[in-house]
Design a protein that fits this description.
Number of strands: 8
Shape: elongated
Number of domains: 2
Largest sheet: 4 strands, antiparallel
Strand content: 15-25%
Structural class: alpha+beta
Strand order of the largest sheet: 2-3-1-4
Low-confidence stretches: 188-236
């Protein structure tokens, strides 16, 4: 009897103190070992809504929205439901460190064969490929562009001449939608013809000026150009 009374009391406290009024819709990432049912029970107590899962078939990480400010401290009742953590889904700015010099790879334009595609040597030998030891993986496992799984962030360009023949459709976690494309970050498209690879020309800003000469970079000053090219990684 005492145990039931304690649980009932804890539920009342959770409903009264677990959330506070908010002025706008809030987004939270909830991790639970109990799966969807435990998160639905949590939202039944706190008045939130489950928008969907974020980890595919694993079913332990969920996006939750609420007009209340939810406490990020997991209490006893929530832990009994299987809730591991509750954290706000926030946009965190990533610090950008300016490069003192233009990377040498941008000048290394000698064409080389890259698994059936001609690319710049500076691309094939870029620092990212060295960090993940791409050449060692190819040589060690005696493969030629097959059998290697690479994790590519949402900055990938699906029309990249090297990537588009082998790139599989992924998931954009920054927008919580299927498909990942760098072109989603481009809000303005220049008027002009597409290039030979079918890629569309796009506005750029100072972050892309490293690939432009000085006269071209001067033309870009003072215009509402968007960020572009924020994270395409190498793939094997």
């Amino acid at each position: 009897m005492k145990r039931r009374t304690l649980i009932l009391f804890a539920l009342v406290v959770l409903m009264l103190a677990g959330s506070n009024p908010a002025t706008a819709q809030q987004r939270y990432i909830v991790v639970s070992t109990g799966g969807l049912s435990s998160v639905l029970n949590l939202c039944g107590l706190l008045g939130c809504q489950v928008q969907g899962n974020l980890d595919g078939t694993v079913g332990q990480t969920f996006l939750v929205t609420s007009t209340n400010i939810l406490s990020t401290v997991v209490n006893l009742v929530e832990s009994l439901l299987g809730i591991v953590s509750i954290e706000p889904d926030k946009i965190v700015p990533a610090p950008q460190t300016p490069l003192p010099n233009i990377p040498a790879g941008l000048y290394d334009t000698s064409p080389v064969n890259y698994y059936g595609t001609s690319v710049w040597h500076g691309y094939a030998a870029q620092p990212a490929a060295q960090i993940i030891r791409l050449a060692d993986a190819h040589n060690g496992f005696a493969v030629a562009g097959s059998g290697i799984v690479a994790v590519i962030d949402t900055g990938v360009d699906p029309n990249h001449p090297v990537l588009y023949p082998v790139l599989l459709r992924g998931y954009d976690f920054t927008r919580n939608q299927a498909g990942a494309s760098e072109w989603l970050d481009v809000t303005g498209i220049q008027n002009g013809n597409n290039n030979a690879q079918g890629q569309q020309p796009a506005y750029v800003q100072q972050s892309t000026a490293a690939v432009l000469d000085q006269s071209t970079a001067a033309v870009l000053d003072g215009s509402p150009y968007v960020a572009f090219g924020h994270g395409t990684m190498t793939s094997g």
